[in-house]
Structure formats: structure tokens, C-alpha cells
Amino acid sequence: MVEILAYRSLVKLLALCHFISLAAVVTVEARIRHYRWEVKYEYKSPDCFKKLAITINGGTPGPKILAQQADTIVVELKNSLLTENVAIHWHGIRQIGTPWSDGTEGVTQCPIFPGDTFIYKFVVDRAGSYLYHAHYGIQREAGLYGSITVSVPNGESEPFAYDYDRSIILNDWFHKSTYEQAVGLSSIPFVWVGEPQSLLINGRGRFNCSILATPSLEVGVCNTTNPECSPYILTVIPGKTYRLRIGSLTSLSALNFQIEGHNMTVVEADGHYLEPFQTKNLYIYSGETYSVLVTANQDPSRNYWVTTNVVSRKPATPTGLAILNYYPKYFKKSPPTLPTTGPLWNDTVPRLAQSLSIKAHKSFIHSPPLTSDKVIVLLNTQNKIDGYYRWSLNNVSFSLPHTPYLIALKENLNLNHVFDQTPPPENYDFKNYDIYAVAENVNATSSNGIYRLKFNTTVDIILQNANTMIVNNSETHPWHLHGHDFWVLGYGTGKFDMMKDVGKYNLVNPIMKNTVPVHPYGWTALRFRADNPGVWAFHCHLESHFYMGMGVVFEAGVEKVGKLPSSVMGCGETKGFHRP
């Protein structure tokens, strides 16, 4: 009888392991976690409308990576896109000692060519909630993304308690292909991508197929009975507390997230613990992750709506819907109420208030340097270059080189052939520039020059927002820094004043993050230490904005980087270099 019970326990354990690794081939050897992924196009209907999506092992979102702090992750990635390159960025993983695995095409590696297999290998050095996604062209928009959960080491505890752990990825979804969108953004006349057709919660949404009911529409292209677009259901046990790791990988939209009738206690942001605060409305920007605690303490005889809505842009996209289901009742039954439409889309006051309320947890404060060695002010503007629409920083629009910076600098290539040796400007005409008006001269220049920072120095970045080329319009930009976390020293409205606003910095308990918003007509101040050898992108996390030039690159201590694997080479000036 004992042997039978042991056998049954083993069967249950194996079944659980199979469930965890359902979408990927995963083995665990001495804290080295192996994943074997194949990237390819498949027809998918995440919002009931069938279109080509980029999948990993047949799924979008891709497999969830589960690891423990200090584990090594090995991802063997085969590119089966046939006619398209690919690269994957591990968002929030600092890549200490492995900058070539950051996955940023043009910055840290050549793209993975069709038919090739590339191995990413890196250490997850800190517990927390992270993401991964395509970093080639605007492929993230096509469905190539997923989540990373890193648990604390054995014997360590977190400053909050919960019973169960769940991950939720929020995304927006377009029906046009990435090719159509990229061509429109690069054309004269300019063709904007428009607003997304749907909002997805864990890869599921619901598009109103009836508005497409035309004789020319192929039968089955939009099918609301397709199980792929049935709403995501979060089943909870009454009385239990759940940690929801919520990440946003939207291509365009800033979002609000709510759970009907339930409060959320925010406890983590981008892998850092924060002083808990309670909210019913969580504002989240592309590239951010938050952990919230939710207790299933409402009437268990009914279900509740989980909703996400667009903010900061005039909504033209329906509410994204999921269902909070109280076990064991009515698994798929819709709640009896109408879904919330969310807060006012153009009310910046509560969004700025949330940003200001996020402080480091009192027991996990990483004190920032009290002063910086360099200050770079980046004016975010919309411009034109030779009639093409672009986004710019200090009137310079960024473009990627054909040879990745990391390879060019480390291999001592003829840099004049690779990228512009003149660094971008570090400030703008503060005195005369009116951030509330369309610029008198909207013309800009293009460059692939980079900021070369002295290793281990402290750098302040001031992100200054301004009016676009549309009257009375300023957009929200979420900025993401690769290879580092930064201290968020402050936010403000209007034009940043170097004499007055520096004195308002929070140097006591600032949160550390890797992604942060700059609000309309406002500023955000960051501080980071350039202590991770390599070359690192810093850019707006909206796909179309970065594609149109809204980014910069920092280099520091590249001479300290170890020998580059030849697998990252093979493009630009390294075409003759060996690739396995």
C-alpha cells in the first residue's frame, strides 16, 4: 500500500511539472533552467479576429519563465519566421556580465536570421516580476512576448504574505500587420497606426465582429465562438489572498486596471518592494510590472469583472475584460453587472498622484548617491525630417546602425564606418523653448551617435515632455532603461527648473525601477549609476515611438566586457565573422 501511495504521489508530481512546462521544454539542472523555443508565424484569434501572430512553441503570450534568484536561464531560440529576423529582450534582467544576451538588435547583437538558432544565457540576479518581448522592428506588437517570475532564495521571506501567485499580462492588439504599420510610419504621406482594436488580458480579448459584417469578409475571419477569445478566468478561493503580478506590454496604450468590488494593495514595482498602498485603480504603462495583493473577500455566489481601459489617449478601444470567479461557482458565467469604463482618460491628476505615491519599502531602501556627476536633459518632441514624421530628443532622432554598438566597440572596428562619433546633445534651449506650443520649426536631424559615460559615475536624466505637432496635445511616454535600475527622484508638471526642482528630489526613499512614465506637459527625474559594463538602450517603450526615433544609447566600461560570443555577430561590418 505504501508503494502504491508513493507511486500516486509521483504521478501527481509529474502531472504538475507537465502543467508548469506546458508550452515549453523545460529541465532544471543544478539551478540551470533550459528552455527550447521555436518562433514562427501562426494564425491566431486572441480577440476573435483571425490574423498572423508571432508565436513561441505555438502560443501567444509565450511560455512563462519560472526561476529562483541566482538561477541561470538558457533559452535555445530557433527562428522559424522564414523571411524575418528576430531578437528577444529580457525586460528588467540587468544582464550583469552578459550584455550580449540583452537581446537588443543593433545595440547588443545582430538579429537572429531565419533558420538560425541562437542561445541566450544569463543569470536572474534579483527576485521579482519581469517580462520578455521581441526587440526587432515592431515585432512585439505581433504577439512575441511573455512573463518572467523570479522567486526569492530559499530561507528568505518577502515583506508581505499571500496564499497564491498569478501572473497577468496586459496588451493592446492591432488587426493590421506589423509590416503595414511600419510602412505607414515610414511613408509620405504619413499613415498613423491608429488606436488598437482590442485590449487583451493574458492574451484574450473580444472584438465586436458585427461591425465587420460585409459580403467581402472571409467566412470565419471573425468568430466570437472561437475558444481562443473566450475571456481569461481568474479563479479564486474565498478568503484567500492572491499576489497578482501585473505587467503591461502594450504597443501604444497607457492603461487602467480594476477588479470589480475588490481593493488592491500594491507591494512591488519592477522587482523592488515598495511601501504598500491601497487602490481600486492601478495605472500601468508599457514596460512596467506591479505586484498587487487581492483578498477574495466579496460575495462568493457571483463573479466579478476584471477590466482594463485606455487612459491618456482618447479611447477608441473597447474595455478589456476578464472574469474573477469564486470557486467552485459558475466558472464561465458573466458577472451580473456592467463592466466599468474606467476613470476619465484625460485626467492626469490621479495618474501623477500614483507616480508620486510610489516609495521604496522602509526595510528595502537603496539610498541613491546624493549628487550626480553628469546631468542629461532630454526634451521629448515630435518632428519632421525631410517630410517624414519622427520622434526626437533634443531635436535629434535616433537611428540604429547596421553593426551593433557592443560588437563595434568591443572588437575595435573602424568606428567611423559604424556610427556617428559625435554624441547627441545633453540639453536643449531651456530658456526659449515653449513646451506648451507646437515648435515654430519642427524640423529635426537624425543620428546614431551615443553617450559614452565614464564607468561607475552617477548620471541624472531629466525627461521633459512637450507639445506634439498637434495643437494642445502632449502624450504620455514610458521610458525603459536596459542593463540598470534607476532611482526615481521626482515628477512634476510644466518645465523642469534646474535651480528650483532639484531641491524637491526625493533622496530619502526613492523607488528603483527600470521603466517610468513622463506625463503630458510634465517632467520625470531619474538617477542611475553607470556600473554595468556594456552598451545599453534607453527609449520610449511605445513601439511606434521607438521605431520613429525616440531613444538614446549609453556606453560605459565596454573595455571590461568579456569575450563576445561569435553568435552575436554576422551583420554589418561583422558579416565575415564566424557564426556557428
TrEMBL record:
**Domain Plastocyanin-like, first and last residues per copy:** 39-153, 167-327, 432-556
EC? Answer: 1.10.3.3
Q: Which InterPro entries match?
A: Cu-oxidase-like_N, Cu-oxidase_2nd, Cu-oxidase_C, Cu-oxidase_fam, Cu_oxidase_CS, Cu_oxidase_Cu_BS, Cupredoxin, CuRO_3_AAO
Sorted keywords for this record are: Copper, Disulfide bond, Glycoprotein, Metal-binding, Oxidoreductase, Repeat, Secreted
What is said about its interaction partners and assembly?
Answer: Dimer.
Q: Which PANTHER family match?
A: L-ASCORBATE OXIDASE, MULTI-COPPER OXIDASE
Name the UniProt record assigns to this protein: L-ascorbate oxidase
Which species is listed as the source? Prunus dulcis (Almond)
